[in-house]
Design brief:
- GO terms for molecular function: DNA binding; DNA-binding transcription factor activity.
- InterPro entries: Tscrpt_reg_HTH_GntR.
- This is HTH gntR-type domain-containing protein.
- Keywords: DNA-binding, Transcription, Transcription regulation.
- The two termini are 31 Å apart.
- The protein is 54% helix and 6% strand.
- With 138 residues, it is mainly alpha-helical.
- The chain has a two-stranded antiparallel sheet.
- Helix 1 (15-28) packs across helix 3 and helix 2 (41-48) packs across helix 3.
- The longest helix has 25 residues, at 83-107.
- It has helices spanning 15-28, 41-48, 52-64, 83-107, 112-126, and strands at residues 68-71, 75-78.
């Protein structure tokens, strides 16, 4: 199975963290449903051109969070994730992105009004009011 993970060699984030964040997002967004068999550690490492140790760490971290299950001799699978966990993740992810954007606005000394204007312009561009609740065009 080819995983839609994008790595950036230019990123200040370590490779394992880039993989872990994206894989967690795929699981919590429901794009990887419960029971999905993930690539073996070796296969995933080859796909991403990284170390087996990197993928092992990602799988272990996500297993410790309860997002993955490893069955000896069978493989690593996506675990059951409750709707409340998905909602909490969605809210936290967007809140974190908003806070990062506000922090950037402060660093470049935008006023609150300028920041709100940019936010509304982005919102109108990417999520017009005629969109359904999920942000997709109706």
């Amino acid at each position: 199975m080819q995983m839609p993970i994008q790595l950036s060699a230019d990123s200040a984030e370590p490779m394992y963290h880039q993989i872990e964040v994206q894989l967690r997002s795929l699981i919590l967004s429901g794009k990887l449903p419960k029971g999905t068999l993930l690539p073996s550690i070796r296969e995933f490492a080859q796909q991403l051109s990284c170390s087996i140790i990197t993928i092992r760490r990602v799988y272990q971290d996500l297993e410790n969070e309860g997002l993955l299950l490893t069955r000896q001799g069978t493989g690593t699978f996506v675990a059951s994730v409750s709707e409340s966990e998905r909602e909490r993740y969605r809210s936290e992810a967007v809140t974190e992105a908003f806070r990062a954007a506000v922090a950037m606005a402060q660093r470049v000394q935008l006023t609150r009004a300028e920041t709100e204007k940019l936010f509304r312009e982005s919102l109108d561009l990417l999520m017009p009011e005629n969109d359904d609740e999920g942000g997709n065009k109706a």
